[in-house]
Amino acid sequence: DSLHQSHLWGQLTGTGPTIVNSQEAVLTVLSARTPPILRIDSLGACPGSIVQMPLYLSQARGVDSFYVVLRYNPDSLQFQGTNSLNPAVVGRIRLMTTPGRLEISGSGLSGHLTDSSIVLFNAEFFVTASSAITLDTIPRNFSWISRFGQPLAATFVPGGIFLNVTQQVEIMPVPFLLS
Fold first, then answer.
1. In the chain, how long is the greatest CA-to-CA distance?
2. How many CB atoms lie within 10 A of CB 12?
3. 118-164 per-position pLDDT tens digit
4. For every residue of 66-99, which 3-state class applies, written as one string?
5. CA 75, CA 56: separation in Å to the nearest integer?
């Protein structure tokens, strides 16, 4: 009835020429879920500093693979490398970089990710000026695949590294007379 309806998705597997009405069939049903979320914070930095930018992933249970291309201004940020790779994804994440472009791919992730928010890794940048870090606008450069081989909708929350603005105050000597 309409009071007890819910949206479900799943995959029917089994043996034999037809698995419909078969006692050997298994229906795996998963409830409707929030799409995976890849998030980058906005951080402040001083020119000449190296900043660690965490890449967060949440709602990722059921993700088997993904491919993401991020863009940034290479005149403002220079990619230095990564650190703090999450143990859940060691050996399952691959990075390729060119100035202004960071390609991140993950595969064989089924069973290794949860819905909790995790830091995939920290990307290190040498900072010379402010730069947003955005998603490449070509659709195939943001693809997510479920453990059943189906495309997944996903969400990207952009961030960036922005220069800290400090106000300089000039102190001027005040002449005074001694009497």
1. 110
2. 12
3. 999 999 999 999 999 999 878 888 999 998 899 999 999 999 999 88
4. EEEEEECCCCCEEEEEEECCCHHHCCCEEEEEEC
5. 25
